[in-house]
Amino acid sequence: MSDPAATHVDSLPPALRETLKRAERLECWNIFWTVTIIVVMGLVLGQSQTMKTAWIEDTLGLVPPIAFLIAARMERKGARSRKFPFGFERVNGLGFFLAAVALAATGALLLWDSALTLIKAEHATVGSVHLFGRDIWLGWLMIGAQVYAMIPPMIIGRKELPLAEELADKLLHTDALMNKANWMTGAAGIAGIIGLGLGWWWADSLAAAAISFDILHDGLKAIRSSTAELVDGTPRALASAEIAEEAEALEAALKQRYPDATIRLRETGRLIRAEVHGCLPPDEPFDAQGHWPGKAERNWRLAQVSFVPPADAVSNDSTEAE
Amino acid sequence: MILLALIALGLGGCDYFPRDPEHSLDDIRSRGILRIGAQQDLPPEATQLIERIERSTGAKAKLSEGALEPLLQKLDKGEIDLVIAPFTKKTPWAATSTLSPPIRIEGHEKNRIEWRVAMRSGENRWIFLVETKARQIVRESDAT
User: Are both A69 and A190 inside the same structural domain?
Assistant: First the structure.
């Protein structure tokens, strides 16, 4: 980090930069396939509540990849400046938060909508179209569209997971989980349409309610995790709101080295920053990443160890070593 | 699993799918009467359509006259089976009843009036039958 104008990505190991590029390419494909799904589903939407809900969920699926691509671009291109002295590594966290709020709000809205349809006992009409010289019930086309909509997310979600782990990227991880969960949406949607075809008017709204509940659940989980990062909470695990194992290990290692100090860890994007309070920095040459307790190829995550001496110490307020 | 179920349904269920939640079509067949509501004299396309539906259900049409709104209300309660009426393009009734494709169009652009058949919402098998017959009539009158 000798060059003051460098970007966040410049200070990452080259292998990781490659992974980031791979993830960006994958997300471009993700956007492409999601758009084809939105078009196919939109063509057969009809009056079905299930289809409407599933279609909105598919459209919302664009938010995480777009947020990821914007964040990754800013991480790569955004140089540190006087106005942004810490660079743009936290754009990812901000994008994650926005995606989470959008997800939760839409989920709540759709849940309300389908509950209302159920309560009012509205019977959904699924009509017919004339295609290739035959009259076809639209339900068949809806089922076909739902089956198609299940395939790309399954494949993309599976490919995203390892990349998200390697990059310690929560946004990408959330997207992977959303994609993986999308086949459940597809299955629920198909069940709803089949139920409707069997003459169960409630099947449609019930399936829609199940799908919207899933969207809301995803959103709330993501909000919990993303706010933790934005208020400088201890680094959280990728998949949950619990403290990450890597952070636990790092805290233990720092505690061992500076037994009298208080250790504070926080996360800025994919990086971890440590503050050692009530202790002066050691005199010997300092190797911040040498403090990393885990595997060496992950030590890039520890970007900074700062020392905050006790209030009565007669030195500078704060000393930083990198 | 799902795919297997789909294939099974696809092979065995084409005639069987979709069904009416309130059994409209079954009731029409067993009753032998097709209850139609109309506000004014019906155009020839509508008469043709009624004949076709009579033929494929084996039910005899019984016409009752009345104002549109009460008729649509009866339709929603299942007291009649069809309402044939002229609608405007952006009719608010499309939200409460299911409207067939237009079988006759009168006037142009802003004055355009579409004759459509209203059916009880959600009665998908019955709707399928009426829509199919309505499209046949439109195709035939386009051809001539």
Answer: yes
Q: Which two tokens stand for residue B96?
A: 């409460």
User: How do residues A70-128 score in pLDDT, each as one tens digit?
Assistant: 999 998 888 888 999 888 888 988 888 988 888 898 889 889 988 998 998 888 899 99
Structure tokens at A142: 């809806």
Q: Which residue has the higher pLDDT, B140 or B84?
A: B84
Band the pLDDT of B40: cuts 50, 70, 90.
Answer: confident
Task: Please check whether residue A235 lies inside any domain of the structure.
Answer: no
| Residue A306 domain boundaries | 245-321
Question: Please, what's the b/e burial string for A150-179 (b: 16 or more CB within 10 A of its CB; e: otherwise)?
Answer: bebbeebbeebbebbebbbbbbbbbbbbbb
User: Would you call B132 and A128 a contact, using CB atoms and an 8 Å cutoff?
Assistant: yes
Q: Does the beta carbon of B135 lie under 8 angstroms from any beta carbon of chain A?
A: yes
Which sequence spans correspond to the domains of chain B?
A: 19-143
Same-domain status, A90 and A209: yes
Q: Which residues does A187 contact at the CB level (< 8 Å), separation at least 6? A: A150, B2
**Of A184, A169, A182, nearest to A33 (Cα)?**
A182
What is the rounded distance in angstroms from the CA atom of residue A130 to the CA atom of residue B137? 13
Which of A49, A123, A132 best probes binding to B when mutated, by most B CB atoms within 10 angstroms?
Answer: A123
162-221 in A: which are within 8 Å (CB) of B?
187, 190, 194, 196-201
Determine contact: A121 vs chain B, CB below 8 A.
no
Q: Which segments of A78-200 does DSSP mark as H helices, in order? A: 91-119, 138-167, 170-197
pLDDT of residue A3: 54
Residue A277 has pLDDT above 70, yes or no: yes
Mutation to test the A interface, candidates B77, B123, B128, B135, most A Cβ within 10 Å: B128
A127 closest CB neighbour out of B17, B19, B127: B127
Q: What CATH number is associated with residue A81? A: 1.20.1510.10
pLDDT in tens, A155-172: 999 999 999 999 999 889
Cβ-nearest to B135 among A130, A137, A194: A130
Within 8 A of B10 by CB-CB distance, chain A residues are 140
The architecture (CATH level 2) of B19-143 comes to 3-Layer(aba) Sandwich (3.40)
**Mean pLDDT computed over every residue of chain A:** 87
pLDDT at A156: 94
Comparing CB atoms, the residue among B5, B122, B128 nearest residue A123 is B122
